[in-house]
Amino acid sequence: MSERGALRARLDVLAREIAKFGVVGAVGLVVNIAVSNLLWRYTDIPTVRAGLMATSVAILCNYVGFRYWTYRDRDKSGRTRELTLFLLFSAAGAVIETGVLYAATYGFGWNSPVQSNVFKIVGIGVATLFRFWSYRSWVFKALPDKEAVLSETAEAGAVPVPTGPAAAAGPAAAGPVPVPSPAARVEADAARR
């Protein structure tokens, strides 16, 4: 594949990832705004605290969407690590999101329902940029490319499968059987699904 073709393929994959992230994020936005407005309207919970509670509900909803749809093809070997990092980066995103709402509510006194919704959405937008970067970089790590796995297997000393007369002589004459690396086994498992 040419350099230009490889770049095009990478951009296509990134565009699909961004689209899926956006769909899950849109669902999370609806959950976040709906829960916020329900809490603001029917409870006496302060604006920022209710917004943070709504963000927490949306974070749980988003994890399911990210893990089982957006990043379903990513490494699943360390779920505890993944969930811990997801919650850590989500908490940082919640601080960003709630910080914008806090500044508008208590810093500027903009506390009407419309203003609260506008600054809630602005905070979500800023936090989304941080979350996209952190989730794809740290939480849902990509599996290695097939070419990288094949070259790693070759560098690890795996013996190529014989062809010709050596193959006809049977496995005993062929020498040691190549053992794929754990990454190659993960890739093979993912390909079978």
- The best one-word shape is elongated
Topology as a string of helices (H) and strands (E): HHHHHHHH
Number of helices: 8
Evaluate the radius of gyration. 24 Å
Q: In percent terms, what proportion of residues is strand?
A: under 5%
Distance between the amino and carboxyl termini: 26 Å
Structural class: mainly alpha
Summarize the amount of helix as a percent range: over 70%
Number of strands: 0
The average pLDDT is: 82
Q: Poorly predicted ranges (pLDDT <50, ≥5 residues)?
A: none
Main sheet overview: none
Q: What keywords describe this structure?
A:
193 residues; mainly alpha; 8 helices
Protein architecture, described:
This protein is an all-alpha fold. It has 8 helices and no strands. It has helices at 3-42, 47-70, 79-107, 113-139, 146-155, 165-168, 171-174, 182-192. Helix 1 packs antiparallel against helix 4, helix 2 (47-70) packs antiparallel against helix 3 (79-107) and helix 3 packs antiparallel against helix 4. It is elongated, with a radius of gyration of 24 Å. The two termini are 26 Å apart.
In short:
With 193 residues, this protein is mainly α.
Topology:
Layout: H1 3-42, H2 47-70, H3 79-107, H4 113-139, H5 146-155, H6 165-168, H7 171-174, H8 182-192
